[in-house]
Amino acid sequence: MRAYGIAIIAAVVLGCGTAYAEIANDKVKIGVLTDLSGMYEAGAGNGSVEAAKMAAEEFGGKINGKPIEILAGDHQNKPDLGAAVANRWFDVDKVDAIAELVNSAVAFAVLDIAKQKNKAVLLAGAGSADFTGKACAPDNSVHWVYDSYELGAAIGAAVPQLGKKWFLLNADYAFGAAMEAGVRRALEAQGATVVGSLKHPLGTTDFSSYILQAKAANPDVLALNSGGPDTDNAIKAAREFGVNAKLVGFGVDLPSGIKGMGLDTAQGVWYVTPWVQRDDAETKAWVDKFMAARKVPPGSFQVGVYSAVKNYLKAVQATNSTDPKVVIAKMRETPVRDVFTDDGYLRPDGRMVHSVALMQIKTPAESKGEWDLSKVIAKLPGDKVFRPLADGGCPALAGK
Amino acid sequence: MSTTSADPAHAQPASTKSLASFGLPPIVLYAVGLALLVAGPFFVYPLFLAKILCFCLFACAFNLLGSVGLLSFGHAAFFGASAYVAGHALKVWGLPFELGAVIGTAAATFLGVVFGYVAIRRQGLYFAMITLALAQMIYFLALQLPFTHAEDGLTGVPRGRILGLFDLNNLYVLYYTAAVIFVAGYLLIYRITHSTFGQILKAIREKEPRAISLGYRVNDYKLLVFVLSAALAGLAGATKTMVVQLASLTDVHWSTSGDVILMTLLGGSGTMFGPVVGAVVVEMLEFYLADSGLPIQAVIGAIFVVCILLFRRGIVGELSHLLDSKSRGKAG
After folding, report:
1. Does the CB of A203 have a partner CB in chain B at under 8 Å?
2. pLDDT per residue over B98-130, tens digit each?
3. ipTM of this predicted structure
4. pTM for the whole thing?
5. Domain A150-273+355-385 in CATH: superfamily?
6. CATH pick for A2-146+280-354 out of 3.40.50.2300, 2.40.300.10, 3.40.525.10, 3.40.1190.20
7. How do strand A97-100 and strand A120-123 relate by DSSP bridges?
8. Nearest CA in chain B to A72
9. Is A225 helix (H, G, I), strand (E, B) or coil?
């Protein structure tokens, strides 16, 4: 054990793990642990598994002669089940890294296990900013796609375009509260005022009383700090009651979700997305390949899984190691340039910083094709929207 | 006994029941069970087995309530509340597991007294709905109270050492600790249902007015068994927190109350061993189907429907019924 520790220290000191570390068990195994049967399936789920497989295929299914294996697991949004599967994957199946982990509760549980067992976690769908804050694990995890801080900050950047008087409608749970805090912080910095704020329980179907109160406050902007079906229902209610304010929704960036709402209802809604499809041949080929397999365009979590897995595998290839500390150190050195982002880099706290986009959903007249649903309003540089490294309070970095 | 029907009018007449159908399988079966319990971790992943045992105890605790003919739809409240309290005690207060389990169980017992006091005044569906409503209150408390960390869950709970000696992070130590707790809980339930107290519970289930006319304070009996059931569910919850190192909203969610009913009905309600079999089956399905690519809930649902249609007594209930009728056939 001690010799092993010395080897790692030596490897890090030399800045190159090649000579000391190796690919454990002669296989590179990545488990995609996600929601395969519940409310997050559309945004993550089987599409994420497919995306991870696509990343592995690009290496020809092998790294330095060692086969890559992608496993898929359904955590059913139950943290204890997710933890049990993660434990088994690490102990019995010798999985090297677990990817995706939509649902923060499951992600926190799995991250704890990965820290204990010294394995890697590639977070895509989990959104709590604590993963690079007080719960950070720079040697074991990377947080690839988005977080609650970034969502708030990005929307704040749109204040000049949207207006000064904001009304916030927040889902009453930890993520809703984190987003509300993020939005308020950003609004304050921009000199906008919050004229009203309401909380609604998760899974609300009847938004009429909330929407009427919001309407009475006559704001410029109505921000919906929720996600999934809650946002959809709130948007529908706002349309029915003829709210004039501009609508800002979170968690509406999934193409199939927008299509489900219909452009008649969803048109004009503003949102922030961590990924926007670039107009180049590489991206188009990738999306076409994804659509051939899944029949729907990818969501940002799914592209994020592809990108995280691909960059992880690249680092494994370069270091010839599956030791998370060695691999993640290598990932930090390598800029992220792929379908997901063209300006990404991995920060010491595990945050992958990349530019995000402010989007608006098109009107039915503007839409030119089945999946032509929204337009880019502005691209926001990552350093402006993600929480600065110093403000995260990552305990593992405090001593460094 | 084929039913936990909360409505005494629907209960089967007492005369059709032999001792065997209330769950005294031959001693051989118990020996086999014990052997499996001891040898299990050498064949199956021990952490997972330990988690199964927690749910076995939970299902047995739930089934205890069936012995007086009550169907609770809120048992997740006791399981989850204890899981959270024990988790907090272990993680934040840094207490050893034994103390954490005691505190968690005490919290569940307290809730059991409160819930029981309110709920046992009604019967059947109304009883079930009251327990569900109270359990939903606990769910929303868990969502809002700061120490539960809402939907992020209480994670990274340290396991510590059992009796201050053996490191619970060793999966075999962990498993055998859970096994001892399970066996102790199981024996306690066995003792309760096979005591005079248990006989009175049965009498209340079969015909409550008659039990009252015989001079029994029916509500006291119901309350006591409700509290005992809650406490044991709490013990299961606290142990689960230590095993999987987390407590989350799933533990207090109504679907967990539903799961434990499913486990009990699948295995055979009213039998001693049925809930154990049911818990093993449901947990195994969830765990092994997790990376199979099959829609888990649909599979479990289909199995449940098949069970209800084909063997209404549950797996163990049906088996013991078969054995019963065989032995009767020989005798006749």
Report:
1. no
2. 999 999 999 999 999 999 999 998 888 999 999
3. 0.78
4. 0.84
5. Response regulator (3.40.50.2300)
6. 3.40.50.2300
7. parallel
8. B291
9. strand
